[in-house]
Design brief:
about 55% helix; Helicase, Ruva Protein, domain 3; about 0% strand; mainly alpha; two-stranded parallel sheet; Zinc Finger, Delta Prime, domain 3; about 325 residues
Length: about 325
């Protein structure tokens, strides 16, 4: 509604609208406003550009402060900045200010670390640690350890990880590793994803923590994850098997004459809303893809399947 209110003024040329978003504008900007705009993509700064910025910042500092600092090693500055130009320039000024009254003229990585050690990034959002720490986070939840879970969550939050990325990974885990052992987990993970989009930092950490701990202490089952993997492997192996006639749709007279849907038994017409019939192609009609997990919820599912299908499943 806020974006819609700008349309008339933009169209009439009463205002020049300049906006910025870290998200894909196709999703975050209403289509009517997007069609009246020129979209420019601002790409992440390259390593070479970051090095140039360090030189520019140090030259400006030397000029203003009448110093003669020379930055010999730049890796620590770049790692600390996380690719953020403003943070990079500020860190150069901070470090050089620290050594302004000393006899030091050449700045190396160790000098940068000494000054920035309190705030040195412990988490590289675009590097190896990004994948290692999210892996540790997922494995802690899968392993039902709430302590490990909140620790790795804290590492990501402190490092400035995208809260929506964390929430998305919890959504996947809720289905892959908890599944039918606690179907409510997916609902809670989805609510978490919606909530952090609305709330944002710093309060989003509370919602992420509640959800992560809930997922960690939930009973675990990967039965549906394995079922779809096995089903996809079966499809790849057996190809496009024909749909049995009794399961086919019959919207035309010709299809009815060809017995499409003829032998189909409508489950609700039978006791207990169930009737024994085949739902797989003839070639694979006895195959078993879903194996209930060993947990309270799926034990009930197993008993229900056994009651309906005897030993078929």
């Amino acid at each position: 509604s806020q974006q819609d209110s700008l349309l008339h003024a933009v169209e009439k040329g009463w205002i020049v609208l300049i906006g910025a978003t870290t998200e894909n504008p196709s999703f975050e900007v209403v289509s009517a406003l997007l069609s009246r705009s020129q979209v420019y993509v601002l790409k992440a700064l390259t390593y070479e550009k970051l090095e140039e910025l360090i030189d520019t910042a140090s030259e400006k500092f030397n000029q203003d402060e009448k110093t003669s600092f020379k930055i010999i090693e730049k890796e620590a500055f770049i790692q600390y900045s996380g690719g953020d130009a403003r943070k990079l320039i500020n860190s150069v000024e901070l470090v050089l200010n620290q050594y302004k009254n000393s006899k030091k003229s050449e700045i190396k990585n160790e000098d940068v670390l000494e000054v920035l050690q309190e705030t040195m990034a412990l988490y590289d959002k675009n590097g190896e640690q990004h994948y290692d720490i999210i892996s540790a986070f997922i494995k802690s939840m899968r392993g039902s350890d709430p302590n490990g879970t909140v620790y790795w969550l804290a590492r990501m939050i402190a490092g400035g990880e995208d809260i929506k990325f964390i929430a998305r990974r919890m959504l996947i885990l809720a289905s892959e590793d908890i599944g039918l052992a606690n179907p409510n987990a997916l609902v809670i993970a989805n609510n978490c994803f919606q909530a952090v989009n609305v709330i944002g930092n710093p309060e989003a950490r509370i919602i992420l923590s509640e959800t992560a701990v809930y997922l960690a202490v939930s009973p675990k089952s990967n039965s549906t994850y394995m079922a779809i993997n096995d089903a996809l492997a079966l499809v790849k192996r057996t190809g496009n098997l024909p749909v049995p006639l009794h399961l086919r749709n019959a919207p035309t007279k010709l299809m009815k004459d060809l017995d499409y849907g003829k032998e189909y038994k409508y489950a609700h017409s039978y006791d207990g809303n169930f009737v024994d019939q085949d739902f797989l192609p003839e070639e694979i009609k006895d195959i078993k893809l879903y194996e209930p997990g060993n947990n309270a919820t799926e034990k009930k599912i197993y008993e229900e399947l056994k009651k309906k299908w005897n030993n078929k499943y």
